[in-house]
Design goal:
single chain; alpha+beta; Immunoglobulin-like; 3-stranded antiparallel beta sheet; about 20% strand
Length: about 200
Amino acid sequence: MRRIAVAVLPKSIDGLIEYCLRQSEEWAVDPAGIGLTADMVSKLAELAEIARSAEMAATAAREASKAATTVLSSAVTDLRDRAAVLIRQVKAFAELQDMPGLVYARAHVPVPQSPSPLPAPGGAEDVRVDLLPGGAVALSWTARDAAASTGAMFVIKRRLPGQKNFTTIGAAPGPTRSERRATFVDESLPSSAGGCLFTSV
């Protein structure tokens, strides 16, 4: 009959230590009766105690490391906040002086750079025109560097048949995060208009 090997030793560290401690006590009662010697069992018990001490030390070290990391994180946060307050104080003081650059140099703080101007918004692209019920006309379009959050606005102009110049009829903000296309609805288009031209600036 074929015998199937069964794993006896626990895989976890705690399980292995507890198993060896328990078995060494049981085996010490009559080691010869199970084919062992007293020295073998004694050595097993000794190694189990060493492993238990090492495991306890490792656990304590991990807990100490967590506590030390928490203390370090708090200390670094306090340090960063305090340094930021002092730097803001230096900057505020420098801006009140006739030669702010000299104050920055003395403090070894970089002179703040002037913010770069935003790129000009791009023109309207992928323009769509939809006729709505009631005769209104809905315009929608996309544009690069023209998000509403940048303050971009599109001035809508219209020229009807027979007119030489475009007339401003309203304005619309650029696209937003939720609305990828800018939109404008012309509700003033005369129903008699046979056609018209729109433009934006």
